[in-house]
Amino acid sequence: MSETDRKGGSSPVLGPSLSPSHFAMWRAVVALVHIDGQVTDTERAMVWRLMTGLNLSSEQRAQLEAELERGVLLETVLDQITDHRDFSQLIRLAASIFTADHNFDETEQETLGFLKREFSRRFPAYDWAARPTSSTGSNLIVLWLRRPVVRYLLLALLTMALLYGVLLRRL
């Protein structure tokens, strides 16, 4: 099996590279693989499978390959994740990676909890713990009501309706 096939792709994807925040998220994924001090073949294969099809530049691919071999500290890359979508994707991927080797140890559990707390601290408008898991039916309504703009609009409509009712009674 060639080196290119092992990494889950044919030739590198042409075009613009990943955004700095999204690339930092993938660097954090590599750091998560090293959290428990050992990188299994299953975890390594999972990372390469997840990165298949990413629009990585040759420099970014080389950096991820090197960091997968030697490791990178999670704290050094977390501050570079500036988009809430990248951070929430990191949390979802962390859960997948931590359970890939069927050994969800205490260090990995603590790290997943830390990532969720960091998400809530960095992005308070998007509370990870309170998010519905699916976007169907009543969960979709709850998801919309969590948005501040929607809440303000509903409050304004309610206030106008109450004022209108009071004015009608006085006439």
Would you give an account of this structure?
The longest helix is centred in the C-terminal third of the chain and has 23 residues, at 148-170. The protein has 9 helices and no strands. The model is unreliable at 1-15 (pLDDT under 50). It is an all-alpha fold and 171 residues long. It is elongated and about 80 Å long. The protein has 2 domains: 3-131, TerB-like (Orthogonal Bundle); 132-171. α2 packs parallel to α4 (58-70) and α6 runs antiparallel to α7 (106-122).
**Strand element count:** 0
Work out the radius of gyration. Answer: 22 Å
Termini, distance in Å? 85 Å
The top level CATH class name of the largest domain:
Mainly Alpha
Coarse shape: elongated
Number of domains: 2
Fraction of residues in helix: 55-70%
Q: From the 3D coordinates, which CATH architecture of the largest domain would you assign?
A: Orthogonal Bundle
Main sheet overview: none
List its salient traits.
single chain, 171 residues, TerB-like, 9 helices, disordered N terminus
Present the secondary structure layout:
Blueprint: H1 3-6, H2 20-33, H3 41-50, H4 58-70, H5 74-78, H6 84-100, H7 106-122, H8 138-145, H9 148-170
Quick recap of the structure?
The chain has about 170 residues and is an all-alpha fold.
